[in-house]
Amino acid sequence: MSITLEQAEVAVKAAKAKAVEIGTLMNIAIVDAGANLTAFARMDGAWLGSLDISQKKAKTARFFDMPTGVIGSLSQPGGSLYNIEHSNGGLITFPGGIPIKNAAGEVIGAIGVSGSSVENDNTVAQAGVDALS
Amino acid sequence: MSITLEQAEVAVKAAKAKAVEIGTLMNIAIVDAGANLTAFARMDGAWLGSLDISQKKAKTARFFDMPTGVIGSLSQPGGSLYNIEHSNGGLITFPGGIPIKNAAGEVIGAIGVSGSSVENDNTVAQAGVDALS
Amino acid sequence: MSITLEQAEVAVKAAKAKAVEIGTLMNIAIVDAGANLTAFARMDGAWLGSLDISQKKAKTARFFDMPTGVIGSLSQPGGSLYNIEHSNGGLITFPGGIPIKNAAGEVIGAIGVSGSSVENDNTVAQAGVDALS
Amino acid sequence: MSITLEQAEVAVKAAKAKAVEIGTLMNIAIVDAGANLTAFARMDGAWLGSLDISQKKAKTARFFDMPTGVIGSLSQPGGSLYNIEHSNGGLITFPGGIPIKNAAGEVIGAIGVSGSSVENDNTVAQAGVDALS
């Protein structure tokens, strides 16, 4: 089971709407069950550096089937996953990446958002997830 | 002048419609004037390897402001641009990447399509370009 | 709006003059609004390792439209952007990268300087910025 | 013996003047005896994809102390250096990269130019070389 393009575009649209609502400019990436980019949108004027970060957040969330921020809490100095960011061509482990599940609870993809504070990034990512549940 | 996300999404939608019309499964990428990814869609079941190719085609078309196939005709053995593909982290120089211009003729971005024959790829890319003219 | 080569060369010249004034050997990089290298100078005898750092500082400052040191204050262990340096092919987040703005306050590029202490790097970068304001 | 920044800037200036004279927009890179970037200028509006190519041409010319086009004649299918472009993070082996020598005939660096036809690229590169002899 993997997210469809149609579902991915629903998530992107909802995330964009939330980004507009809270007055931010976001990069929004959706990956499928294979962690491959499925849909992407960069809002006009969004940070250039967030393009890559949004995609890495989405991949990171699917690579380990958990929100990126959870991984980040384990990758700190002294933590059990210290510097895991060096793997897979670069991970991003602060909030803004969230797995997307189907009704049966299976992970079918993930969303990654970057362009503002990590709190805002995560809020916009959650809006994308919620649009599919 | 750079393509907007709204324009990019119009191009993606038109390209998808053309892909459906001709019975293909495509990866469709739009980059802006800075060759940065602006919108992307991968149709369900499209070749995984075409994800990267579609993005490289779009970038290549903007890097040199010409259709990718034109560059490919110059990069053949004995050609003046032989093996230019080794630059810029990897170029794709067969058809399927086309610059997008505004009414004044300025390049504002590019589209890259991959997932079928290069003829089909180019047809779908052209449909994306046409939707904005 | 993007910095011109003429402006970039004014910034490089001013930064070099400041580097000489304070007795340091610097690598000085200017990127445009698209974060693409526009002008660069490496002073004779400057650290080889600083060549890449100066360019990454300039790109980082433009990627997020803020001085690199600000990002570095957020990317520390426990910080909200911990290990953001793994994105975008490698960021440098200590001081020495500063956005360049036009009279209207728009970011038109950035300067990155590396070759001495981060305090000296930042002083030289600021001299480049000041030469354009 | 290595090219100085002062010499490199003389070469860049002469190359720019030649580019203007023949009506082209060039990326111009100078590397030193260690094949490290020493000076760089991208003329306003020059192809984005030529930024990397100009630097790779300069490095390639210094890596093997010969004009890039000579290497390209050996890297063709069946040639003795077939696909040498895969080394060193990517070489560019068509014309536009030329070693820079001192009065004693020692290679002290190289220039790489990209932004037009390979003939024009080479003409502009030669102008940079000539300015130092």
From TrEMBL, chains A, B, C, D:
Region forming the signal peptide: none
One Pfam family per UniProt: HbpS-like
Alphabetical list of SUPFAM superfamilies matching this protein: GlcG-like (SSF143744)
InterPro entries for the chain: GlcG_carb_metab_protein, PduO/GlcC-like, PduO/GlcC-like_sf
Entry superkingdom: Bacteria
UniProt cross-references to PANTHER family, sorted A to Z: PROTEIN GLCG, SLR1406 PROTEIN
Name of the featured protein: Heme-binding protein
Organism of provenance: Spirosoma flavum
